[in-house]
Amino acid sequence: LGLDALWSTVGRPQDYWFHVADVPGPHVIARKEGGGSASLPAEVLEKAACLALWYSKEARQKKIKTVHYTTCDQITKPKGAPAGQVALRKHSAIKVPLVEKWLR
User: Fold this and answer.
1) Residue 57 confidence (pLDDT)
2) Could you tell me the residue ranges of all domains in the chain?
3) Residue 32: exposure state from Cβ atoms within 10 A (0-12, 13-18, ≥19)
């Protein structure tokens, strides 16, 4: 499964997408259960961001702690962009520590 299919096919419009800021790396999807405009629970938000950090070797090496996140319906694919490169209509950012106990 390619990165583009993750947000465009697997991710539903209301699901949340995470990616480490300013470096190549994995895309993480967190399912948002139920309808409405409620946000993800803070713990889910932090854990999903932590996963994005953990699986980004470059982020760990550079000690980057900022992760961008948005809902899947805010992601677009620029024409001619390489696989995995996306544009975000709007997004938020979260700074998280790398909490290894969450990753076990």
Assistant:
1) 84
2) 3-103
3) buried
